[in-house]
Design brief:
With 116 residues, the protein is mostly beta strands. The chain contains no helices and 11 strands. The termini are far apart. It is 0% helix and 53% strand.
Length: 116
């Protein structure tokens, strides 16, 4: 089992930026696929971005060009740089890991609120 702890959430105005961090422990980080999900009230959880062990990345169309995911294997940490934030980005953001695809283990989540 992998333990994940997110941080970096908060409140920001439209157009602002936030950087989320996720620290992993309990497994070999460099062998894990990682992902960021988000869930807004009353909505289904959705995959925002993911990164492979070879640093290949994928982004949802809704965040492409605005969000950037990266990993630092030496620090067992994954990041999500969020720029040009919109009100529709408001959600609880979750870090997730998996052997081949994220979704096996989850963090507690960090709240991101974007106001107009």
């Amino acid at each position: 089992q992998v333990q994940l702890v997110e941080s970096g959430g908060g409140s920001v105005q439209t157009g602002g930026s936030l950087r989320l961090s996720c620290v992993a422990s309990g497994s070999f980080f460099r062998d894990l696929a990682m992902g960021w999900y988000r869930q807004a009230p009353g909505k289904r959880r959705e995959l925002v971005a993911r990164i492979t062990i070879s640093d290949s990345t994928w982004y949802a169309d809704s965040v492409k060009g605005r969000f950037t995911m990266s990993r630092n294997n030496a620090e067992n940490t994954v990041y999500l740089q969020m720029n040009s934030l919109k009100s529709e980005d408001t959600a609880v953001y979750y870090c997730s890991s998996g052997k081949r695809f994220p979704g096996d283990d989850w963090g507690q989540g960090t709240q991101v609120t974007v106001s107009s």
